[in-house]
Amino acid sequence: MTVATMTDWNRTRIQQGWLARLFDNKAFLIFMCLLPAVGLLTVFLTYPLGLGIWLSFTDTKIGGTGKWIGIDNFEYLLEDPQFWTAVFYSVFYTSVATFGKFALGLWLALLLNRHLPMKNLLRAIILLPWIVPTVLSALAFWWIYDPQFSIISYLATDVIGIRDKPFDFLSTTWPARWSLIAANIWRGIPFVAISLLAGLQTISPSLYEAALLDGSTAWQRFRYITFPLLLPILAIVMTFSIIFTFTDFQLVYAITRGGPINSTHLMATLAFQRGIAGGELGEGAAIAVAMIPFLVFATLFSYFALARRKWQQGEAND
Amino acid sequence: MAFIIRRRESIILGAAAAAMAMGRAANAQSEIPKADVPAPKLPIEKGATLRLIRPARFVEPDEVIFRANSAKFAKETGVEVKVDFVGWEDIRQQTAVSANTGAGPDIVLGWAEDPHIYADKVLELSDVAEYLGKKYGGWMFLGEKFGKKAKTNNWIGLPMGGTGGPLVYRASALKEAGFDKVPTTLPDLLKLCQQLQKIKKPAGFALGNAVGDANGFANWMLWSHGGSLVDEDGKVIINSKETVNALNYVKELYPTFIPGTMSWNDISNNRAYASNELFFTANGVSMYFALKNDPATKAIADDTEHALLTQGVASSTPMSATVLNAMVFKHSKFPNAAKAYLTFMMEAEQYDPWLTGCLGYWAHPLNAYDKSKVWTSDPKIAIYRNTMNNRFWSGYKGPITQAAGTVAAEYILVQMFASVAAGQATPAEAAKEAERRTRRYYR
Questions:
Q1: What total number of domains does chain A contain?
Q2: Of A94, A154, A186, B298, which residue has the fewest beta carbons closer than 10 angstroms?
Q3: Are both A43 and A90 inside the same structural domain?
Q4: Does A52 contact B at CB distance below 8 Å?
C-alpha cells in the first residue's frame, strides 16, 4: 500500500518565467557577463583607435572638419625626412634603452636577491625612480642637462676643474639622444629589477643546492638554472618594457621637445607635435597609426615567448 | 618672450605690482585723450550672462584687474561675466572645440589668427571697433591688421593688446665691447657679438623649440634680410636669395653665442641673463621687471637697456607681436551684452589700470593710450610702447591664416636657421626644406 502512495506522488514542475529561462541560456549569460567589459573597451579603446585610423586618412585640422584624402598623409610622411628620423630614433631609443634597462635591472635583481641587511628597505628605495611621476623626474633631468646650470657641468668645471666648458648635453644631435636614453634607463630599471626579483624568488633553492653538490661554478648556476627559469618572466617584462619605451612621450617632451632640430623626436612626440601643437590632426594621426605595426610586432614577440613557456616547464609539446 | 617664466614671475612680481597698479588707478589716472563719440547702441538682453575664456595671467595684476573690471561691468549692467583663465598652450584647442560645437564661452580672448580661422563663426564687431577707434585716436597697425577680415573693412576680432620682444642687453657689457649703443646695421651687429664673445660676456638667442623667443629671432633674421615666408597672396616664397643671405649671416653669428642655444626653450634666456651668463638677447618686458623687483638682481636691472631689433634692409624694426585678440561667437545668446562688455573693457576707466597693472606687457592697440602713465613710469620700458605699431606679423606678408600659426608652432623657420647654424645643412638645402614644409600648410 505504501508503495502505491509513493508512486502516486509527483513533484509539480514549477513553470519558470521567460526571464529565468533566458538567463539559464548559456550563450545569453556569456553575452551579458561580457557586455560591461566589451562596452568599456568599445568606448575607450576601439572607438578612439578607429577614429585615429579614420583621421589619418583625412586632412582634418584642429578647428575644422576634414575630408577623405586617402593615403595622402602617408605619402607625405614617406618623403618627410623628419618622420624617418623619428622612426629611426624610436627604434634606436627603444633597443638601446631596453638593453640597458635589462642588463642593469637583471644585475640589480641578482644583487637584491642575496641576503643583505635591511633588504626590504633597500627594495623599497630601488622602486623610487619608478614611483616618481615621470614629468617630475623629467624636469629634474632637464635641470641636470641644462646648458648653463647643469650640476654635472658645475662639478666638472668649478669644483673638480677637469673642464673649462660646460658639458653639451642637449644642443647637438647625438649627445641629446644619449642623454635621453640615459634618463629613460634610469627610470626604467626599477620596474625591470623588481619584476625579475619576483621571478628569481620563485626559483627553488634546492636546484642551486643540487648544482652546488655537483660542483658547479657561479656562472654555470646562472647560465643553466637562473637564466632558463627566469626566461618566461623575462620575456613578458621585456615585451611590456619595449611597448612602454616605444610609446614614451613625457621624458622626451619635457626635456627636449624633440629638439635640437627634431633629432630626438620619437614617433609619439612627433605625432603630438604635428597633431596638437601644429594643429594638423590628420597628419598627427597618420604618424600615430604608423606606430601600430611596431607595436603589433612587440605583441607577437610576447605571444611566441609565452608559448615557449609550456615547453620549458616540460609539458607536452603542441 | 618666455611663456613659462612669465607665469613664474607672477610670484616675484605679485602683490607689489598689484598694489602699485591699484594705487595708481585710484590716485593718478592717466590723462587719456578721448574724442566725443556716441557709443554704439547695444541694448543688453534681459537676463544676460556671459562666459569668457582667456590665456592665463603672466603677472598677478593681469588677473586681479581683469576680474575687478569684469565685476565692475556686472555691477553697472547686471550682467554676470564668468571669466576662466586657460593655459597658453591649451586655449587655441579650446577655441577650436567651442567654434565647432557651437557651445561653450560667448567670448574668447584668443591669439592673433584665431578670429580669422573661425571668420564664419564669429560676430562682426565693426560697430564696437569703429567707435573705439574714433574715440581713442585710431587703431594701431597690428590692431587693424588682426581686427579686420582680410581685404575688407569688417572687424571680426578686437585686439586688446600685444607683446613684443626687442633687444635686452647689459649696457656695461656693450661699453666694454667698445660700443655705446646697439649697432643699426647687421655687419656691425655681428662685430658686436664677436666682441662680446671675446670679453666673455656673450650674446645668445634661442634656436631651440621656443615658440616665442626662437620664432622671434628667426623672423627677425629673415625680415632684416628682406626675406619673407609668403607673398601677399599666400604664395610660399621662402626659398629666395634673401633667405640664403639670412642663413649665411646666422651661420657667422651663431658661433658667437653662449653655448646651448640650440636646446633653449622660452625660459632659458631669462635664466641665463638673470645669472650673469648672458648679456645680449631679446625678450618681452617681463624679464626686466622680474629683475627689477627682485633685490638679488636689482643691479642687473639697473645695468639693463632695451633697443629695437637691428633693422637691416627692412623699412622698420623687423618685429611682430603676440596679439591678444577678442572674438564673440555667433552662438552666443547675448551678443549685445558681449559687445557691450568688450567695449566697456576697452574704455580708459578700465583699460588704463589694466595696461598699467600689467606693466605694459600687453601693449595697447589704440593710439590714445600712448599717453598712459605706464610708459613714462620707467623710461627703460618706453620702447615697448609702440609694439602694436610694428609693421610685421607672423606669416608676413601673407594673409592671416591658420597656416601661419602652424608654421610657427612647427618651428619651420627656427629649424631652418638652426640646421644651418649647426652645420647640418647648407643654406640652399635649408631654404628648400623650409619651402617643402611650408607648402604643406599653405596648400
A1: 2
A2: B298
A3: no
A4: no
Residues A171 and A235 in one domain: yes
DSSP structural state of residue B153: S
Give strand pairing partners of B54: B85
In which band, very low, low, confident or very high, does the pLDDT at A317 lie, cut at 50, 70 and 90? very low
| Residues of chain B positioned with their CB less than 8 A from the CB of A141 | none
Q: What is the pLDDT of residues A24-52, one digit of tens each?
A: 888 999 999 999 999 999 999 999 999 99
Residue in chain A closest to B89 (alpha carbons) equals A277
- With contact defined as beta carbons under 8 Å apart, do B230 and B395 qualify? yes
Residue B52's SS3 state is strand
In chain A the first and final C-alpha atoms are separated, in Å, by: 63
Q: Chain B contacts of A166, Cβ < 8 Å?
A: 259-260
Q: What is the ipTM of this complex?
A: 0.79
Same domain, A143 and A239: yes
Give the chain A residue nearest B414 (alpha carbons): A261
Check CB contact of B272 with chain A, cutoff 8 Å: yes
Same domain, A297 and A205: yes
Same domain, A93 and A52: no
Q: What's the pLDDT tens digit per position in B398-433?
A: 888 888 888 988 899 999 999 999 999 999 999 999
Using a CB–CB cutoff of 8 Å, tell me whether B152 touches chain A.
no
Range of the structural domain that residue A303 is part of = 82-312
Residue-wise pLDDT for A127-180, tens only, equals 888 888 888 888 899 889 988 888 888 888 888 878 888 888 888 889 999 999
Q: For residues B33-59, b (16+ Cβ closer than 10 Å) or e, as one string?
A: eeeeeeebebebbeebebbbbbbbbbb
* A172 vs A50: CA distance, rounded Å: 38
Tell me the domains of chain B and their CATH numbers.
3-163+321-385 (3.40.190.10), 167-319+410-441 (3.40.190.10)
B268 touching A (Cβ < 8 Å): yes
Position B20 scores a pLDDT of 47
DSSP string over A248-284: --HHHHHHTTT-STTTT--HHHHHHIIIIIS--HHHH
Q: Is B10 on the interface with A (CB under 8 A)?
A: no
- Chain B residue with CA closest to A150: the answer is B260
What pTM, to 2 d.p., does this model score? 0.84
> Is B263 in the A-facing interface, judged by CB distances under 8 Å?
yes
